[in-house]
Amino acid sequence: MPSFHPGKTFMMDSSVPLTSPSRRAGALSELRQRVTGRWLFALLLVLGCAVLSLLVLAPLYTLLSKSVENKAGDFVGLDNFAHYLSSGGIESAFFNSLWVAGLSTLVVVGLAFMAAWALTRTRLPMTGWIRGVLVLPILAPSLLPAISLVYLFGNQGVLKSWLFGAEIYGPIGIIMGSCFWTFPHALMILLTAMDNADGRHYEAATALKASPWRTFWTVTVPGARYGLVSAAFVVFTLVITDFGVPKVIGGQFDVLATDIYKQVIGQQKFEMGAVVSVLLLLPAMLAFLADRYVQRKQSASFTARSVPYRPRRDHRRDVIGAVMLAPTILFILAIIGMAVYASFVTFWPYNLELSLNNYQFGRMDGGGWGAYTNSLQMALGTMVIGTLLVFFNAWLMERTPQPRLLTGVFQFLSLLPLAVPGLVLGLSYIFFFNHPDNPINGIYGTLFILILCTVSHFYAVSHLTAVTALKQLDQEFEAVGESLKASRWRVLFTVTLPLCLPAILDVALYLFVNAMTTVSAVVFLYGHDSQLASVAVLNMDEAGDIAPAAAMAILITTTCAAAKLIQGGLRFWVDRSTRAWRQGTE
Amino acid sequence: MKHLKKALALTALMAAVNANAQTELTVYTAVEAEDLKKYAARFNEDHPDIKINWVRDSTGVITARLLAEKENPQADVVWGLAGTSLLLLKNEGMLTPYAPEGLEKLSPKFRDRDETPSWVGMDAWMAAVCVNTIEAEKNNLPMPTSWQDLTKPVYRGHVVMPNPNSSGTGFLDVSAWLQLMGEDKGWEFMDGLHQNISRYTHSGSKPCKMAASGETSIGVSFAFRGARLKEKGAPLELVFPEEGLGWEVEATAIVDGTDKLEAAQTLVDWSITRQAMEMYNEGYAIVAMPGVAQPVEHFPANAEALIIDNDFGWAASNREAILTEWARRYDGKSEAK
Fold this sequence. Notes:
Number of strands of chain A: 2
Shape of chain A: globular
CATH class of chain A: Mainly Alpha
Radius of gyration of chain A: 25 Å
Helix content of chain A: over 70%
Number of helices of chain A: 23
CATH topology of chain A: MetI-like fold
Strand content of chain A: under 5%
Largest sheet of chain B: 10 strands, mixed
Radius of gyration of chain B: 22 Å
Order of helices and strands of chain B: HEHEHEHEEHEHHEHEHEEHHHHH
CATH architecture of chain A: Orthogonal Bundle
CATH superfamily of chain A: MetI-like
Keywords (chain B): Signal
Largest interface: A-B, 57 and 63 residues
GO molecular function (chain B): thiamine binding; thiamine pyrophosphate binding
Shape of chain B: globular
Structural class of chain A: mainly alpha
CATH topology of the largest domain in chain B: D-Maltodextrin-Binding Protein, domain 2
Oligomer: heterodimer
GO biological process, one term (chain B): thiamine transport
Distance between the termini of chain A: 8 Å
GO cellular component, one term (chain B): outer membrane-bounded periplasmic space
Protein name (chain B): Putative ABC-type Fe3+ transport system, periplasmic component
């Protein structure tokens, strides 16, 4: 048992000076400082809100306001909505969207929770590698699972019989594809929620002779409640707004997101696309409100007095953990494995000769190696700018005194991008940033606007991860720091940042890999010299070069996997050093 | 020393290239990525002083992008975009009318009808049916020869076509059937076809790609994609139904507000020269200048005789009504009961 905790020591030291009468005058000026400090923090968060408004709200307004305008730009009230709703059958697209997203959410959150439990509450070996496999889907461009699912379960698919005559083109394909790509999102949130468990709760449970089953329901699940709700909210919103999977594999199964595609890309009716986007915001809003409602009751699970939980030896439990992980791992490996195979095949399914030809990107069109370097630069920029922005804002919101209203506004702004389909965000960026009156329209068509757009696009999940990590730290840290006259800034750099480093590294990786693989928004924004690898994958597939497309997708995936390895190494090093620091020396 | 010399030579060469490439044109296009290098290189043989910076994407994305950029257009020229899309841009006042040198040599079908045209044609992009010979044999499907054939019960569940609400190719087919057969017969035909369709796709090339990989036996798509896939080794047979084929013109236009008008005009001039037409003919059987086209492999020799007399004005003004009717009849939305 470690006997030394930073929180405790701070407390002991701090009790003396505050009660000393000779310090009263000093306390008064300190109060003044604290008040101005409050103003400074509030001002900084207002600035954060302003930045997000510029990156998300203002662009969105330029597009969504078209939903109440006609083609000529005159205000027409709700006419477009009436027209869209009366065009018939919208109910079934809406209903389809809801049940597909709902079912995907159930499956993904269930599987992700099982996986997170197995990774944090058992002593399975090689958890580093298992974590690596489980995040693989996020490392791959979205076209990769689409190719694999067709090769596995399509009409020529090797596992076609597993569907018992059902077709992959339709809800089954959409759900499988959606589960595949959203799984790491849910896992990331749940792992952050469950990584820092308080060992004392488990000790108490053991002392009270609670069965493992009871402990699970009374300690583990309540501890992960916040993460579970967030994960469900994120997955539901991601699935309902995504048009990539339904477009490629959904056949004519109608969902709201593909309707945006039809209106905007098929018929160039921006105003109708805006109408569907607004309608799509509704379920996402509901999910957001539900999330807020649950979050209100959330309190820190990892307090200054917490003892990091270490699972005991228990083989039976470890076997259960392995069983819970197995189906997910197998599914992910099957999808990735099939894509790797596809990238070597000469012409599926009629010429299965394997060759390396598909990897000669220099000879191929659609951007080649230049696109790949652009993607790398874009991803690195997104990672650096995004991580700084996300973490600083989350820290302001969670760890500094802020008016409730302001944090509410900020929370809303940071989660909003989640409910916006990439296609809508991309078009909004054209309307807003390319406008002749916009003073910064010079960034349009450059790599920089791609970076800004990608940061906004993936802001929400990064924000949630940072907030979850920050929430788990007891507010006492700051209180104690304050009584010690260590400023919040100092607490930030000496306590909060080191404790949150794992989560920061997660956010950085998340932004990097998403920037490498994203397509839906950036397809509207790249210029002649900022063509991206992920877009090249789509173009090659569109031209019928499925194998080279798969090869480029594998190259992107490999790059992301390398980033993951580097991040894993850093995390390991950070974990070790902070764990030693957290537990102190006996 | 040797390296230094090489480096110096290289710098000199680059300087020479830079000195020549004084004007840079931003050109938006939906032409196949694999053809872009060729197009620019051939143009540069005659005009080395103009550098083309391509921005390429699929027809729908490029059109949406151009329209969204209306307030502050980024493109100088559009070279290789569907006539229907250019008509939209023209109606938005986004194109600068220009009569390029040699305009009179183009077939009247292949240019904007205005005296000073807003766009001039390059080539035609025509419908075709991609049939996978291996899968057709497996399923005992006879080779179809006409559109009507595709409504026969033997093809039930074996046909894929693009959704006209998402894809220009899909709309081109639907509009051609309505023009060929008349409204009533046209919808009747589509009712029959709908019985045999296993799914509607969002992309125009997807049905042919699905046929190429055996995911379906028959894909209603366009000829160019089918020919390219065949070259890559797909077991495809391209069928050109005898009743006639829908088609769409691919064309060039100057974007209004460009500050490089002179270079833009040079490019448009070149885009309808005989050389350019011969270049288009390497991939397309029908080009805008009569008498130039040579037969192209995998395309029918009498391609020009097979295409319908497409009334683009009629198609454009009835598009909304046709699409609404189509969605009412066949969309998954109205179908799911």
